[in-house]
Structure to design on (126 residues):
């Protein structure tokens, strides 16, 4: 089933994920070395390797979006400050359709693997 979402981001089809990588901001692009210091405080520089990784995905033809719980205007200002804004199609705080998600808090969950839930719980409840 195709679900069409109309929001401030425009119209998005939930099946429209081809060649899109959704990337977390804090701890992945923004170094975030001191952890959370306030929603409007993106205080750190670029995470090592992020600029090169973003450029490589862009060169390979992937559309890039940032998915973060931090306000989009804070992220957009930060991206401009570090000359990374031109790489991103969107900054969103809702889960966008994507081929891949890169997140420093993610737990890989393989659909169909018998023990995926056990492995996830082992990491969360350790
Ligand atoms: Mg993060």
């Amino acid at each position: 089933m195709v679900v069409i979402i109309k929001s401030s981001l425009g119209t998005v089809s939930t099946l429209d994920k081809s060649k899109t990588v959704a990337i977390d901001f804090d701890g992945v692009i923004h170094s975030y070395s001191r952890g959370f210091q306030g929603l409007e405080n993106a205080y750190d520089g670029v995470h090592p390797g992020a600029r090169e990784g973003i450029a490589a995905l862009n060169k390979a033809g992937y559309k890039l979006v940032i998915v973060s719980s931090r306000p989009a205007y804070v992220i957009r200002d930060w991206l401009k400050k570090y000359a990374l804004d031109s790489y991103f199609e969107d900054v969103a705080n809702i889960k966008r359709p994507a081929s891949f998600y890169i997140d420093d808090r993610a737990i890989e969950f393989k659909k169909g693997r018998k023990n995926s839930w056990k492995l996830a719980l082992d990491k969360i409840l350790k």
Summary: Residues 24, 26-28, 103-105 surround magnesium ion (CB under 6 Å). The chain has three helices and six strands.
